């Protein structure tokens, strides 16, 4: 019995340190996101230029950082702390409460990405801040309506 418990504990520690949840190293995840925002792969540039009137699109600098850099940094930073990656998966064939990553026979379970993106208490669950859909909408509104340019840029 003690060997089984020790084995399960070791397996859990290894899974949390280096397992399926480390599918991409942080720099690789950042580069994938940077490439995904490029014209022809996404409409971000079109939205910036056409809908928001930002003539230079994804080349526009916001406090020294372009949208390409911001998206890359966001992808990289979403992987820290490492427990946040548990919430980056969704299995559409399972009920929503069980649709997240399920590792080690249920010993390690993440929240479905669909629910995670709407969870205003992300920090309470894994640390690393709150970056939910509600937070994104609040920040976007501030970027469009804040009184001064420096407030909008922030």
Could you name the ranges where pLDDT drops below 50 across 5 or more consecutive residues? 6-15, 17-21
**Mean of all residue-level pLDDT scores:** 82
The arrangement of helices and strands along the chain is: HHHHEEHHHH
Radius of gyration: 19 Å
Structural class: mainly alpha
Major sheet: order of its strands? 1-2
Number of H/I helices: 8
Q: Determine the strand fraction and express it as a percent band.
A: under 5%
Largest sheet: 2 strands, antiparallel
Q: How many strand elements?
A: 2
Quote the distance from N terminus to C terminus: 56 Å
Fraction of residues in helix: 40-55%
Q: What is the global morphology? A: globular
Short description:
The protein is globular and about 50 Å long. The longest helix has 16 residues, at 2-17.
Helix and strand topology:
Layout: H1 2-17, H2 26-36, H3 44-51, H4 67-77, E1 102-103, E2 108-109, H5 113-116, H6 122-126, H7 133-145, H8 149-153
Antiparallel strand pairs: 1-2
Structure report:
The chain is 47% helix and 3% strand. It has 154 residues and is mainly α. The protein has a two-stranded antiparallel sheet. Strand 1 and strand 2 form a beta hairpin.
């Amino acid at each position: 019995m003690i060997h089984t418990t020790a084995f399960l504990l070791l397996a859990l520690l290894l899974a949390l340190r280096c397992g399926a949840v480390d599918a991409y190293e942080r720099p690789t995840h950042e580069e994938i996101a940077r490439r995904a925002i490029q014209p022809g792969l996404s409409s971000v540039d079109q939205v910036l230029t056409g809908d928001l009137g930002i003539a230079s699109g994804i080349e526009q600098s916001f406090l020294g950082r372009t949208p390409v850099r911001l998206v890359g940094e966001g992808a990289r930073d979403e992987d820290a702390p490492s427990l946040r990656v548990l919430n980056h998966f969704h299995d559409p064939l399972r009920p929503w409460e069980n649709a997240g990553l399920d590792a080690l026979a249920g010993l390690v379970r993440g929240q479905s990405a669909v629910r995670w993106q709407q969870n205003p208490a992300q920090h309470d669950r894994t640390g690393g801040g709150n970056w939910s859909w509600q937070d994104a909408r609040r920040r976007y509104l501030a970027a469009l309506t804040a009184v001064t340019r420096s407030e909008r840029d922030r």
